[in-house]
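Annotators were shown the component list below and the corresponding predicted structure, then asked to write short factual statements about the assembly.
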Amino acid sequence: MSRVAVLKGGRSLERQVSLRSGARVEDALGRLGHEVIPIDAGVDLIRRLREAAPDVAFIAMHGRDGEDGTVQELLEILAIPYTGSGVLACSRAMDKVLAKHLMIEAGIPTPEFFAFNQAAFRELGAAEALPAIEERLDFPIVVKPSSQGSALGIKFAPTADDVPAALVAAFSYDSRVLLERYVDGRDLAVGVLDGRPLPVVEAVPREDDFYDFEARYEIGRTDFVCPADLPEGVGERAQELALHTYTLLGCTAFARVDLMVDAGGELTVLETNVIPGLTETSLLPQAAEAAGIGFDELVRKILELAPAAARY
Amino acid sequence: MKSSAMRDLMAVTARPEVISLAGGLPDTSTFPPDTFAAVTQRIAAESCAKALQYGPTEGLAETRECIAQVMAAEDMRVDPEDVLVTTGGQQVIDLVAKTLIDPGDVVLAEGPTYPGAVPVFSAYQAEVIQIEMDAQGMRVDLLEQTLDRLERRPKFIYTVPTFQNPGGMTMSLARRRRLVELAHERELLVLEDNPYGLLRYEGDALPPLYALDRGVFVMYLGTFSKILSPGIRLGWVAAPGPVLEKLNLGKQGADLCTSTLSQLMLQAYFERGNWRDYVGSLVDVYRRRRDTMLDALAEHFPPQAEWTRPSGGLFVWATLPDFIDTTDLLARALRDNVAFVPGEAAYLDGRGRSSMRLNFSASPEDAIREGIRRIGEVVTEQVQLYGTLTGEVEAPSGGKLLRMPPPAERERRARGS
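Structure shown to annotators:
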């Protein structure tokens, strides 16, 4: 039995999901016989961690702070072992631009893109490069903040006239944004647990609203199919790519890699979440379930791998 | 429909470091604690058993007398028999929807409409048609056109005619008269939601629809939340007899009766005879806060923004250039620890994406000033960024981005400040 601090909530825009992930993890840890110390990460985080002196911290925070390496760094300083990936893997995965450059270098297919920060537009006249980018990427163009973990701020620009407003929206979430080639295809996600890929999940929007990205992530508007019904070899290839990406970024214990597959069966990797949702409806737990790993077992496994990422 | 993005964002607005202009809360901090103590003490001494007991579904007779007093303050005469006491005004919206709406039925509402009514209408699967508004409130001419066009009779028309939530505008007398006429001509029920009528900061009161109609087709929703306390959860509906019977049945199913304890507190409070003085003190506080917000908007919002200038109520409705999505803007504003309600919350059809609702009743003046300054800064930042992206420079005259400045801004300029 260990004393486990469950870190959740925080000031991220994914606070709500994180609170649900955290609560579910707490229940599982309780059933596994651990002493659970729930902590909603706020200004008193360090003090509470010092007071609690846990054997290990289970990080159930999504997005900013939890997934970008900030909390991991703090736990390193306090010498508290923590679950999931280390600081470096978090930094690489959270920064979509960096992750995509690394993937291209490693030969992992990812949609073509261009990335800019606000200063490039303000001070270097980057706006004048937009027509060339638009020609290269073709419409619709996907515009997304570089470091936002969820679907927040992701916009589709069907025409050149829509690009500026989409950029303004994306810049609401991050000072750096990317314009990405749109892949017309199916959304796939592959969970990786302890270096082994889980069955492929497909997210199927219920309504056929092409441009409504939110529908893909909203409960009740999306069906998840696991294992996904894919053409011969595509599922295996998706798992290979996911594992390759997971290894490339240096992830530990678990992660979820999001991919697209187009009509021709071509796969591309969009991004990696180092702390994917752990709620009842989240993809990773569903994929684990499909692989015969129940939620308690999933939590047990993640906890067991905790010390692996720490660098102290 | 509220997007999931907005729900996620709104969850962050409750953090203590955030200046929230998002809520719709009255300020309860000035209510005298000794009055509260005297009221509760009296109940303990005189009617403890009654306070702890169930009460009649329609509410205690004495509560309905208090309600008649409040309605009289806005020149409405009501027979206490026509009143059903409810658990807050929100319950009235729910009961009316539950009683009258079958899935697919049409409800007409203002666009924008009260964000708290949106999930209720959605839950009962109403098809809501939102009628545009201008400075004079709901465009009753458009309402009439819509009625002509509709193949089925709507179940009811939902309106907040006075100091509208979220728009802040007040329906003109001519439109009030025409709306009531329409209701009579076409035998249509109207749900008049009037939480703010007594929170008037200037000008003369207009008659409520209920007074013009005399309770034939108008169901009147009142509440003690804004003139006494939202914590006691007391509201009411005054409605024509047959409708009231159905609502009464609905209420029995929902919660049997409204809290007896709350009703006794209300009675004891009203017996002290000075409830209007407290409303008067709230009006003074809120008027200053509204003025502070309007001044801050004029100072900090870019000229491309427009906003309403409410003569009462709790809200200002600001509209930004259409390239700004206020749900995304909220994410940016939250980084600067300030929050508002994105306009899409006030629509069921995805409109309102460039508007925002700003509340001035719940924050002290310095927080309002600072909150508006921060929002103004991020709006200005986005306007400039858009100008950079499109190659349109923000020009002081001409230019595609420039619109007529709102009245407050023109006044400020005229004063040369």
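Statements collected:
1. The first strand of chain B starts at residue 19 and ends at 20.
2. Chain B has 15 helices and 14 strands.
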